[in-house]
Design a protein that fits this description.
The chain is α/β, with parallel strands linked by helices. 32% of the residues lie in helices and 16% in strands. It has twelve helices and nine strands. Strands 3-2-1-4-5-6-9-7-8 form a nine-stranded mixed β-sheet, with helices on both faces. Helix 2 links the parallel strand 2 and strand 3. The longest helix has 14 residues.
């Protein structure tokens, strides 16, 4: 008798086309062992409205429009673009600010739409979607689904955590009713091998990571929400990975819809940030080194705003910080094999 599929909700700032955000969604959608109940969207790498359109179009192109795309938070809980720019004048430039990036360094290789307001939806490179997002808000959807399937749902969070914080405040039992949380975020002491606009954000500030820095208050609320189990995939676990042309050629060589989408929109040369979180959720045996730490995010608006705080397990200040499984290293060859196998699956 076949085992029941794992129920998963993907929470993602699904900026695209292609790139780590959407490639990770592809991996989960392609897994034969997973039922994706929905994809909830927030701002981060791009604005929520644009991210929602990219996710809808992805589902159209791979023939998976039965999966609902649920729009969520456009803005962080407290942090703003204006306060971030004031913070930079006091404490130094943040190399990467996602949707707030109004200029890019000369060495940038990411093709992005120009800086624009959150309500603007530029024409999409991959074509505009014709399907519509769900009418429900992301926080309400998250709460409703974990109540519908208590103890069964894995929440895979790979963007900023505003939607999850709102869900936790909407329903005190939200996190406790989920099976587990797997999230891509935080940073401890990543080993940097390449200098680019992304690695610059933690070369001199190794505890700062974008998903947590976009909305630090939401990250702290999410961590303290009362999950049964939390697995953190930080920048440390991603530093040894890279989407090389050779790996992209293998993954995009199939004639299935997912491989064809990926082949049209690969994002070469960057670490496989969200792909690793998806892979760890799908196959925890990929983790080759992990440890237990008590983890929180700094919400004081000083120089360390948004930085990762950690202590030995059980050794925190007792302000609700949970003990978290922190992934330090993964089996990179097996990650690459899983990535190729899932994208080529028809």
């Amino acid at each position: 008798m076949a085992l029941p599929k794992r129920k998963v909700i993907i929470d993602q700032d699904a900026f695209g086309p292609g790139g780590s955000n959407l490639q990770s969604i592809l991996m989960v959608l392609q897994s034969p062992d997973v039922e994706v109940l929905g994809i909830t969207i927030e701002s981060g790498d791009g604005w929520q409205k644009e991210n929602t359109a990219h996710a809808l179009r992805l589902l159209e192109l791979i023939g998976r429009t039965e999966v609902p795309v649920v729009p969520g938070a456009t803005y962080p809980l407290i942090n703003t673009e204006e306060s971030t720019r004031r913070w930079e004048k006091l404490h130094g430039r943040l190399p990467y600010k996602g949707a707030w990036m109004d200029a890019w360094p000369d060495y940038n290789t990411v093709q992005r739409t120009r800086y624009h307001a959150p309500e603007v939806l530029p024409p999409l490179e991959e074509g505009d979607p014709v399907t519509r997002p769900a009418a429900e808000t992301a926080a309400a959807f998250l709460v409703r689904k974990v109540r519908e399937f208590p103890g069964e749902i894995t929440v895979l969070a790979m963007g900023p955590f505003t939607n999850l914080a709102l869900a936790a405040r909407l329903d005190d039992g939200f996190a406790a009713h989920a099976r587990e949380l797997v999230f891509m975020g935080a940073s401890f002491s990543p080993e940097v091998s390449t200098i680019d606009e992304f690695s610059l954000q933690f070369i001199h500030s190794p505890r700062v990571e974008f998903n947590c820095r976009w909305d630090p208050e939401a990250a702290s609320i999410m961590l303290k929400a009362g999950w049964k189990k939390i697995t953190c995939v930080p920048l440390d676990a991603t530093a040894a990975t890279k989407l090389t042309p050779a790996l992209a050629a293998r993954a995009g060589a199939g004639d299935g819809l997912a491989a064809r989408y990926f082949a049209r929109h690969p994002s070469l040369g960057f670490p496989m940030w969200d792909e690793i979180a998806a892979a760890v959720m799908l196959d925890p045996s990929l983790v080759s080194e992990s440890l237990q730490l008590a983890v929180d995010i700094e919400i004081d608006h000083g120089a360390s705003y948004g930085a990762t705080l950690s202590w030995a397990a059980g050794g925190g200040p007792g302000l609700g910080e949970p003990d978290v499984t922190v992934v330090r290293r993964i089996d990179v060859p097996r990650l690459e094999e899983l990535f190729v196998a899932l994208l080529q699956r028809r």
